[in-house]
Design goal:
The protein is mainly alpha-helical. The protein has one domain (31-121, 146-209, 227-462). Helices cover 56% and strands 4% of the residues. The chain has helices spanning 2-21, 31-36, 50-69, 72-75, 111-115, 122-135, 145-158, 193-206, 223-234, 238-260, 277-284, 292-313, 315-319, 330-348, 364-384, 391-411, 414-418, 433-459, and strands at 76-79, 176-179, 262-266, 271-274. The strands form 2 sheets. A two-stranded antiparallel ribbon has the order 1-2. It starts with a helix and ends in a 5-residue tail after the last helix.
Length: 464
């Protein structure tokens, strides 16, 4: 019996050694692990972790936010896609049909939105009519003294320097309404030197980076360049480091959208759009990008927290009884405002918001200068969007930079928001309809990106 038992143990040992020799004790790493193994746990400069964001966004926020963005108020965005590039003249316009944007005919846009394109409520419509009359030299005696004062305050606000973006003149003949649902953000084939130049200028000239510090993968490869770049980045103050991470997060989010809505099949019968895991891997795989991909995804989560925090801060502005999501349809407008407030209260309940109190908290004069540099750099990035050669990419680039700029404006206006009157015009803090539409649609894009990451995790589980 003892000999039999010993023989069995020996055979098991031989089998184990054979498996060890063939490397079967360790399964090959999957593509999902290479893309996401570092995209977990706590985020740098934050007290929040990735898993909490995933759960909150994908199951509590995303479905309701998508419903809101499908409403008339949020689906129509007025934009000027014909503005010339202010930085260079040799723009190669994308001739691909998927780069084109189809603007709305006048009768497709609800009358309430067209008349309230500059402001956002029925009362604002009357004020705008007063502005137009004033420009024509007319006197509208039906406007009260308080309303006339509001006109002057709004004009002052709209011309002020608190904006983080170069705003389109939506009164320009070149400005047109676009239905965002009919012109979705997706892969258009716009790439190569022209697309590369856009992002290169953004990173190299607007992210507080000296020319001597090269971004990883920007030119050539090698760990030394990566180490030099991240040593430099960690040495920055928290505000400048956050600026870089916001831009990187926006870039990552756009790449997620392009990978998730990729043209998989194009025949005379149909076009098929869907998830392209190979494209996603090229942009985010830890090995293929020499570690850059997972960092980009972590920056996407950082951007999510910044925009989430801004939405939680701006709740009092939307809670005021005078505020309407005005389209002219009173029933739908009331329902949409109720849904908007429901979403904002849900956001307010998020337990691990980003703490922006560390921003610009040093010497008062230095903090003021840093904040102004921050604002001017971001305004410059918004101007670069007019240099994008693909019109659909330009549309979504302009909308998302304006949305992020509006979020930054909110974060730096906390005291003004706190001092708003409960009713009547808010003289100190104001948001135009364009800012509101871009703010929520931009966050909708980030929210969609986070949701799509869950889809890519599943798709890549069995890819090696």
């Amino acid at each position: 019996m003892g000999r039999a038992w010993g023989l069995l143990v020996g055979l098991l040992g031989v089998v184990w050694l054979l498996r060890l020799g063939h490397g079967e004790e360790r399964r090959p790493e999957t593509a999902a692990q290479r893309c996401f193994c570092q995209v977990s746990g706590y985020l740098d400069d934050c007290t929040c972790d990735v898993e909490t964001i995933d759960k909150f966004n994908n199951y509590r926020l995303f479905p309701r936010l998508q419903k809101l963005l499908e409403s008339d108020y949020f689906r129509y965005y007025k934009v000027n896609l014909k503005k010339p590039c202010p930085f260079w003249n040799d723009i190669n316009q994308c001739g691909r049909r998927d780069c084109a944007v189809k603007p709305c005919h006048s009768d497709e846009v609800p009358d309430g939105i067209k008349s309230a394109s500059y402001k956002y409520s029925e009362e604002a419509n009357r004020i705008e009519e007063g502005e137009q009359a004033e420009r024509l030299g007319a006197v509208d005696e039906s406007l009260s003294e308080e309303t006339q004062k509001a006109v002057l305050q709004w004009t002052k606000h709209d011309d002020s320097s608190d904006s983080f973006c170069e705003i389109d003149d939506i009164q320009s003949p070149d400005a047109e309404y676009v239905d965002l649902l009919l012109n979705p953000e997706r892969y258009t084939g716009y790439k190569g030197p022209d697309a590369w130049r856009i992002w290169s200028v953004i990173y190299e000239e607007n992210c507080f980076k000296p020319q001597t510090i090269q971004r990883p993968l920007a030119s050539g490869r090698g760990k030394s360049k990566e180490n030099t770049f991240y040593n430099w980045l960690e040495g920055l103050c928290v505000e400048k480091r956050a600026f870089y991470r916001l831009i990187s997060g926006l870039h990552a989010s756009i790449n997620v959208h392009l990978s998730a809505r990729y043209l998989l099949q194009d025949t005379w019968l149909e076009k098929k759009w869907g998830h392209n895991v190979t494209e996603f891997q090229q942009r985010f795989d830890g090995i293929l990008t020499e570690g850059e991909g997972p960092r980009r995804l972590r920056n996407l989560y950082f951007l999510y927290l910044i925009e989430l925090r801004a939405l939680s801060k701006v709740l009092p502005f939307f809670e005021r009884p005078d505020f309407q999501l005005f389209t002219g349809n009173k029933v739908q407008d009331a329902e949409n405002k109720a849904l908007l407030l429901e979403i904002l209260h849900e956001i307010k309940s998020f337990p691990l918001h980003f703490d922006e109190n560390s921003f610009f908290a040093g010497d008062k004069n230095e903090a003021h200068k840093l904040k102004e540099d921050f604002r001017l750099h971001f305004r410059n990035i918004s101007r670069i969007m007019d240099c994008v050669g693909c019109f659909k990419c330009r549309l979504w680039g302009k909308l998302q930079t304006q949305g992020l700029g509006t979020a930054l404006k909110i974060l730096f206006s906390e005291k003004l928001i706190a001092n708003m009157p409960e009713s009547g015009p808010s003289y100190e803090f104001q948001l135009t309809r364009q800012e509101i539409v871009s703010l929520f649609n931009a966050f909708g894009r980030i929210s969609t990106s986070v949701r799509e990451l869950e889809n890519f995790r599943h798709l890549l589980q069995n890819v090696h």
